[in-house]
Amino acid sequence: MRIYEGRPAQAVGRLEKEMKVYDLLDELGIPYVRTDHEAVMTIEACREVDEALHIEICKNLFLCNRQKTNYYLLVMPGGKNLQAKELSPQIPSSRLSFASGEDMEKYLNVTPGSATIMGLIFDPENKVQLLIDEEVLGEEYFACHPCVNTSSIRLKTEDVLGKFLKAVHHDYIPVKLSR
User: Fold this and answer.
1) What's the pLDDT tens digit per position in 82-139?
2) Minimal CA–CA distance to 55: which of 31, 35, 37?
3) What is the pLDDT of residue 53?
4) Which residues contact 110 (CB under 8 A, 6 or more apart)?
5) Full-prediction pTM beyond 0.90?
6) Which residue of 16, 60, 111, 150 is 20 to 30 Å from 45, comparing CA positions?
7) Where do the structural domains in the chain lie, given as residue ranges?
8) Distance in angstroms (rounded) separating the CA atoms of residues 162 and 85
9) Mean pLDDT throughout 13-42?
10) Is the model's pLDDT at 78 over the cut of 90?
11) Distance (Å, rounded) from C-alpha 138 to C-alpha 97?
């Protein structure tokens, strides 16, 4: 698997939403490395990508409350499993479940298997609350998809938390999830 510095040389064959991610990262002066790969739908399928980028790609879960009035993007280490009863009191919201693929597309412009913090570019009305596990916050680097699951990028966590989130007008709630 090849590693590239920055954006693809050509946009041919790339989706507009992926290119918007690269445009914003470049505009903000955020350096990143990228790898292209077959579509990966699960964290387990990302192992080869993890090895290429020398990092564990984050698990991104798109959740909602029972009434579907509050939406959450939970970013956590790939090796952790979600315990909703552990998360609910920290946000606070009860009866969390996975949001639909249609809602994921509506609010983040991504499809199932492609959920990513980069999708917040497409949430100008802040309908999605970002939740980040404290273990992710403590890492030097952060890896995710650029709104498609056929590429992955690695960038500094401080750039994501500072420059990127500020540019897309989102804040985050730190959460603590056990392994």
Assistant:
1) 888 889 889 988 789 999 999 999 999 999 889 999 999 999 999 999 999 999 999 9
2) 35
3) 86
4) 17, 104, 116, 119, 145, 147, 148
5) yes
6) 16
7) 4-175
8) 30
9) 93
10) no
11) 26
Give me the pLDDT at residue 76, please: 94
How far is 100 from 160, CA to CA, in rounded Å?
26
For tokens 């500072």, the residue is: 162
Return left, alpha or beta for 11; rule: phi > 0 is left, psi -120 to 50 is alpha, else beta: alpha
Q: How many CA atoms lie within 13 A of 100 on its CB side?
A: 7
pLDDT computed for residue 56 by the predictor: 83
**In contact, 87 and 74? CB cutoff 8 Å:** yes
| Alpha carbon distance 88, 44 (integer Å) | 25
Residue with tokens 């939970």: 74
What is the average per-residue pLDDT within 76-82? 88
d(Cα 95, Cα 100) in Å, to the nearest integer? 15
* E strand segments, the chain: 4-5, 33-36, 59-64, 71-76, 97-98, 128-133, 141-144, 151-156, 172-175
Say which CATH topology domain 4-175 has: YbaK protein (3.90.960)
**Token pair for residue 4?**
């590239």
The token pair that represents 145 in the structure block: 């998809």
